[in-house]
Amino acid sequence: RRHTRFKCDWSSDVCSSDLYPGIPELLKALRDRGARLAVATSKVEYAAVRILEHFDLATYFDVIVGAGTDESVRGTKGLVVSHALDVLNLPQGSGAVMVGDREHDIRGAHENDLPAIGVAYGYSHPGELVEAGAMFVAQTVADLSSFLLATSQPS
Q: What is the pLDDT of the chain when averaged over all its residues?
């Protein structure tokens, strides 16, 4: 099942997962175009940083934000996205776009006036991302790459 793709034992720093092929190359291509990249995750922030470091992806991101350890601190996806925009010093509706694999990602983007792209190769259920209002749903990393690179402006 897809839900077992990622497992970490933080007490020993052991992570096992499949990194989707093409993601590092896509992140590099976006950075090479001057894109500012952020992670806005519902995972606890320290865990998100450790996961990205484990896969040597952290350096691609200007900002990595997650939920706080207390739900009152960035306890919803919308608040996490808002915090990422604040740290990037981008106003809501600034031209940024959210990429996510669950309805919460799509809704969190919309709460911040951002368009949302869904990735069906993540944890979503069939139809979930379209139903939540994703403007585009990528079936593969290649689809996502083609869409983002075709619509991004090189700086």
A: 86
